[in-house]
Amino acid sequence: MNPVTLTEICRWTSGQLIKAGMIDSVDKVAIDSRFVARGSRFVPLKGEKQDGHDFLKQAALNGATAALVKRGTSLPPDLPDSMALIEVHDCLEALQQIAR
């Protein structure tokens, strides 16, 4: 995947950068915090039993430098400052918009 800037992600998803973090672009994406690669964007999806938002901190500790978050979601208070956050209406829909 070519590097994508946070500004482009915001434009494509109608998202809002709510926390700048330490980077301006990402070139990887992960939907499972266990498989995050350093410098990737984490997209927390909600499943039947778990909500990916519960793993934002773990994704950051595993190397994610940016994440999408659903508007209105409570964020962990101890989320590392290095992680940029883009607030979107729906994470799955935003992931699909980025893929287009």
Describe, in plain words, how this protein is organized in 3D.
- The protein is α/β, with parallel strands linked by helices and 100 residues long.
- The chain is 23% helix and 22% strand.
- It is built from 3 helices and 7 strands.
- The protein has helices at residues 6-13, 56-61, 91-99, and strands spanning 4-5, 16-19, 25-26, 29-30, 41-42, 66-70, 84-88.
- The strands form 2 sheets. Strands 2-7-6-5-4 form a 5-stranded mixed β-sheet. A two-stranded antiparallel sheet has the order 1-3.
- It starts with a strand and ends with a helix.
- The model has no long low-confidence stretch (mean pLDDT 91).
Task: Summarize the SSE layout with pairings.
Blueprint: E1 4-5, H1 6-13, E2 16-19, E3 25-26, E4 29-30, E5 41-42, H2 56-61, E6 66-70, E7 84-88, H3 91-99
Parallel strand pairs: 4-5, 5-6, 6-7
Antiparallel strand pairs: 1-3, 2-7
